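Example 3.2
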Amino acid sequence: MAKITAGITTSHIPAIGVAMDNNLEETPYFKPFFDGYPPVRQWLHDNPPDVVVLFYNDHGLEFFLDRKPTFAMGVADKYENADEGWGIATIPPITGETELSWHIATHLIENDFDMTVCQEMKVDHGCTVPMSVMWPDKNYSHIKVIPVAINCERHPMPNPSRCLALGKEFGKAIESFDQDLNVVLFGTGGMSHQLDGQRAGFISREFDLWCMDKLITDPQAIADLSISEIIQRGGAQGVEINMWLAMRGAMHGNLKLLHSNYYAPISNTATGLQLIEHSH
């Protein structure tokens, strides 16, 4: 049977990818951020996943404000990146996974989650930056990825409790798949940040560290918050914690926090990194 071996939280800020492309990892601005990643990269090298289920939010590349599914997932065998509107270079495609992804999609819809199932889908920095930062030099083509997009851009957005519940169904679906696969979950985005409006530049270290603790010990405490409460405490884009909750919901066994790093700001955004080992 397929098994979930770990959950990883990571930022997906576009500036991170640019920094890697321009060899800026050792500069004072970026070094405290990138110094957090070698232990996670080493763990992934020592415990290679067959599949990564990657929870992210699309920022307007595939789903714009005119049509924004609450939950969408890919079932394709390949996902291309594209220019997101500011001249960003295209990068190597993400390798997809079809059998497990269709199994998950079927399970979710049969269990009351009305997913938008995409046989073709462009993926933006929300998906590609986490893969690039975990496998430097964009050496990720050997990893099969199931991208799962959660709406964090247009109201109404799914409640945190709904995202935690979505993750729980993902976990059930993965562990009912009848092939021996090692699956690692990525919860991407955040942490606290607000990119526009009167509170542009807002960051709350207190809220971020509370979320990092509760994600391990009591995820329901985060899930009990409303979207409005998260915006008040974590900024307008702090709702990206929903991807972390979906990842956490899929893990129900014994959890061990192997590594953690928090740093702010990168591009007016707080960043959190956690490696959570999962066993039964």
